[in-house]
Every structure is written in structure tokens, then in C-alpha cells.
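Entry 12.
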Amino acid sequence: MDRREFLKVTGTGALTLFLSGCGINAVSSDKKAGAAASPEAKPGGVSQGKKLKIVVLCGSPHKAGTSALLADKFIEGAQAAGHEVFRFNAAFEDIHPCNGCDACGMSGPCVINDAISQKLMQKLVDCDMVALVTPLYYYGFSAQIKMVIDRFYSQTGAIHRKKSMLMATAWNSSGITFNALQEHYDTLVRYMEWQDVGRVLGYGCGTRSAIEGTEFPEQAFNIGKKL
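Predicted 3D structure (C-alpha cells):
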């Protein structure tokens, strides 16, 4: 199947997925009340009792930053529920951007032999769920995690039809803070035919001490625990 045919087929499937409304949206419409809430599903509801393989992609250059705390708590909850978690901290790995050569043909391998190819890609192919964790940089993903997302291209088909979630933090607390990021994530979910199982959006969390005084870490833990 060539790229045009692939895009035609996956585009149709993505539209069906989008219209079906499958998945659990964990975002509250009232950001001041918490911006996100844990899935309503009972423990094992999303996984249906299956042990999930989860890849957590972190895009922060701060090892003890605000989004790193959300990742820590989500992983703690998911592991407590018996799920297997692989964490990839993009900012601390030797990674490189997609150069658009198209040698992979969207089905690999990528010509760039870096940490994405060596450590991450097979984990993404084999996993059941992808969690994207990022600080908000100019209303979008950080460059570090965006670099990883762009490299999805080399295994596009193999990374389709996973579960997914988004966790992000920002200094801002205005109504537009996460609009562009969520639009990007929602488009990625539709294209990749992922099932969104929730998101935690940490408004007004510019420092570690600021986020530690909120309910966002607990929300991240609860989503992991209730998968």
C-alpha cells in the first residue's frame, strides 16, 4: 500500500473513530474546578482487566519539573494497577528530528540510528497505550517531544490504534492556554486512530511548588490507577 492509499484508508477510519466518540474524555469543562478529572471508569475499565504496556513520552528539559511530576504520579498509579510502563525522557536522550527523506516509507526502519530508533520505536510498536507529557511552550508541545512525534512517521501504521492520554502544565491560567495544544493532540488522536482515555491540564503551574499545591498530581495518579 503506498502513502496516498494509506492516508485515504486511515483518514476514513479516523473519521469513523471521531464520530463514534469512543474513549473517555477526562477533561472538565470548568478549568477553575480542576481542568481535568479522572476517568469515570472503574479500575480495569479501560484495560478491561488486561495488563497494559504503556509508553510515557516526556518532553520536559527539567528532571524535577511540573510535567515530570504528572508523569511520576501517572506511572505510580499505573504500576500500582499492575500495568507495565516504559518512560522515555526525550530531553535527556540523543535524539534527532525527522529529515523528511522518506526512506522509511512510513513502515521503517528510520535511517537515523539514535535513541528513538534504538530504545523507543519498538516499545511504541508493541505498546497498548501512549501517554504524551509536556510543558506548554508557546501554546504547543515542547520541541523535545515534538521531535519524537515527528519520528512516528517511520512506523505510522504500526503505531495506529493505541490508547492515549495527554498531560501538560503551563504558567498561564487563561481560557486559551491549552487550546492549540489540545487541537494538535485531538488531530493526532483522530489521524492515528487512538482512543483518548483522559488528560490532565495543569493551569497556573509554573513552578514545582505551585503544582504540588494543586489536585493535578492526584488526577494523574488516579487516571493511571483506574486504567
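Annotation: Residues 5-43 have pLDDT under 50 and may be disordered. Residues 3-225 form a domain with the Rossmann fold fold (CATH 3.40.50.360).
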